[in-house]
Amino acid sequence: MDRRVKKMLKLIEEDADSFAKKAEMYYKKRPELTTQVEAFYRMYHSLAQRYDHLTGELRKNMPLDLQSQGSGISDIGSDIPPRCPSPDRRPSRRKSVPRAAGFDVFLSSGGNSSDVYKKGDKSSSSTDSELEYDDYSVFSGNECDQGVNGKMAELEIGLNEMKEKLRVLEEESTERGAKNDNSDLLARIREYEEEMKIANGRIQLSEEKITSLKTELQKYKQLRTTGSESWIEESAKMEKPEPIEVNQAVELQNKISVLEKENQHVDSKMQALLEEFSTTKEMLKGSENENASLKLERKQFYGTIQDVQGQLDTAQREIVELKLELAERSNCIKVLKEDLETSKSERNGLMSEMYSLKAKVSSREVRIVQMDIHLHQLHMEHVKLIARAEAAQKLENELLSKVKELEDEIKRQRITILEGAEAKREAIRQLCLTLEHYRNGYHMLRRAFIGNMRIPVLTT
């Protein structure tokens, strides 16, 4: 939003080389300026709706004790005086400047833009009334946002005033467009003057040609008279009984025919020049009449241009005043935006505290539930341990009785084992004796066998 406001101010405060260029610049950049204003209003409207939605949710979800704290904060904030002037102290709109004759017709071409502005103003006023109704319905029971609502209302009023001033500036720029028409008329007058100069030059050239042709005609007339005189003399000579050659007569006839042809050509040329002279005279009279009418129109337009120049000077002074007022309004908007940012930061701080408290309460509730579950589990484990201890006691008694029985059994088995061991020893003793007996018998047989084997060897 700050970026769009800066761009809009740059479009409004941009300077040009001359006053006419500045008017043309305003006329060309009017659609861009209107789009910037509309985008600025849409962003502001969406921001206000988001703020209303968030404050409504905060009011619904806020506990009672936090609401009481918020109301105390709003009472403190409402005691602070506003930095921007109230709507009642706004400067009144400027009075309309009287226009020159014919300007209403010229400004009729720019009626569409004014209609668009009127429609935009109507839609903005309807949306503003809806916003005020929504604000009242949402914040009727909540005192913590009264200061912020007042600041937002002042911002909306300032925005409407800025739109109205921009519309007035645009109308003035269309009025300044009349100077371009006057410049066109002056250019036409200059063109007509140049055409008059060219026509005068052509007339002078034609007059010079006429004088030169007149001199040539005089020469030809003199030649004709001299030729006729010579022809009369020659004819008189021919009437004399003196002999004349035929060739000289033919030459004279040829000269006479040539001179007659030249005379006819000069007459036709003279007639054409006279006709051209008459047409140029008529054109000169028409151009002189047109020049006189254009001079009258130029005088009238000079008067209207002076009137327009005076109106443009007054409009320039009003533009300077409006620029200063717009700068003051922009400063007020900056201050109000800073206040809005501080209120938003406070609201965000309260929201964060509320969320942290909710998180703590929910965590404690979860811990309590977990401790109940753990306690129940411990009780069940204790009951199970008691049952297991009783079962273990019974098992221990059974095992002790079994141990006693096993000890008796072990004693009996020991006695039987000892008896079996004695029997085994005796059997082993008997086996040892039998083995000794068999071993002695084996040695005796071996000796006898070896002795029987040696006798045949000795005999061999």
From TrEMBL:
Keywords: Coiled coil. Pfam families: KIP1. InterPro entries: NAB, NET_actin-binding_domain. The keyword Coiled coil applies. GO terms for cellular component: vacuolar membrane. Belongs to the NET family. This is Networked 4A.
